[in-house]
Amino acid sequence: MIELRCLKNGFSPRPEPVPGRFVFALLLSSLVVSANAASFTAALDHDTILLGDTATLSLKFEDAQPGGAPQPPPVTGLQFNYIGPSSQVSFINGETRSSVTHNFQVRPTQPGEYLIPAMSVRIGSETLTTQPIQVKVVRAATPTPGSEAEQEALALLRYALPKQEVFVGETIVIEQQVLIRSGVQNVPALEIPALEISGCAIGKAIQGQQRQTVIGSTPFTVVPFHIPVAVLRAGKLNIGPIDGAVVVELPNRSRQRDPFDPFGMFNRGVQQRVAVSSPLITLDSQPLPEQGKPARFNGAVGQFEMAFSFGPTNVGVGDPVTVRVEIVGRGALDALTLPEQTGWEEFKVYPPTVKTELRDDLGLVGKRSFEQVVVPGSTDIAELPPFEFAYFDPEKRAYQTLHEPARPLLVRPSGATPSPTITANNGPLQKPEIAQDIVHIKPRLGKVVAKSPPLISRPGFVALQTIPLVALLAAVLRRKRADQLANNPRLRRQQQVHRLVHDGLAQLTNLAAEQKSDEFFALVFRLLQEQIGERLDMPASAITEAVIDDRLAGSGLDEESLASLHWLFQQCNQARYAPVQSQQEFEAILPALESALARVNEVCI
User: Rounded to two decimals, what is the model's pTM?
Assistant: First the structure.
């Protein structure tokens, strides 16, 4: 206890002896009072999210140290992408408070009301639990064309079609237009999902030259993206509605002018995220007409020209003749094949070698070359039969046939080896001359030296003779393997894709370490296309996310693998507009890609 004595000038404390046990209890109680209870809370920066926009989910630990970042539970319709941690330490009234916050980006995929369930984390002997969070996702209103709302919008999203009616097999270019109102200082950062049309194969978007336009009296900058779209089926094909976001930078008019920066060169603006939405538009896909279809039409759609040559023109029976065909024009060049020709029955025709040269970034204009070897079978052949290539011209809405007339060809009998000529001597046989001198027989053998054993008795020499036999056997097996691959293009493609996937996974690890986002996701997209295309026996360029539901859903692939493939395609599509990715995203994509490719290779047939 402490005793206070009253003195003349005030109070003066005089301490009394304090027991040691009391001091220990007092310190213990002070520690208990200053200790702070651990807590785990979840918060969303806004509970109403526009479709195409994002929100931030914060998982905050106070006076607790979790082992790592907790993963939010999966919610259908919401995507969670880890952003990174942040920490804070504060001193209040002598007490130390610490907190760690793990931030996640929440991206909705469809409108509706969702519930993020409660999350529990066990730290030591204590279990911490958050409260569930209600989330509402709504679609951004699309302004009416020409309205005041459209003129006052900071950003707009539109899709322009070259025409409303197309044909199956035709490839068109759809222009995605992002319109930015005048006054925005920088080029916009886009977060718009990739275009997806059921029944179509979507190519890579290529950014075009910016241009200016006026809506009402308001000028806008148009940022175009050209997207090649190959139509695969007939019917009404819906495009959109598509929701996204544009990050723009507006002038900061509230900030005071810096006297050392009179022209405002270093006065950074205010960034603002603008949700944009495109209306639903419909593309009418018509089947190719049956009337007037040529007999040798094999599906080519576009506008083409043909160049034809062959040689040599003077050959023997069984000698090869090389036929060269070049198809030049606009269309799906990678899908072009040579049709079967009539009148070539007396030739042995080998599969052609194909080469494609593209002349534009969209892959629609270029040249496809075919080099085919044919072998005449008899001397009755006097000409190379005529050659025809048929295609459908969607602009003329009719079939066209490119015709090459018959060309003269001289086929002679194959050359024979002449018999050797034997010259006989008709004169009398003459006795050979015998030497007159006779060599004396040696009476002594001389020095006798023991010779080494003959080579045939040496094991090394015998083993050396097996080398040509092994080499011959290896050559035969290699030739047999090459013939097998030449006659089995499916097996040849399977081996090529296996090597491509093996090398690509190793290359992805280096790209992830270097954080090269564009190269990383371009290679991920190619590996998915090649592996799925090989399994489904489809061209790799025709593989999109829509193929997962159309072709892979019934192949025996489990739901987890299908969801992983959807997620990987979405990550690749998102990377076209947001190339900057965190290290955590790279580390999450690599094992998911390797597992998905392995499951596709095992299950899909």
Answer: 0.54
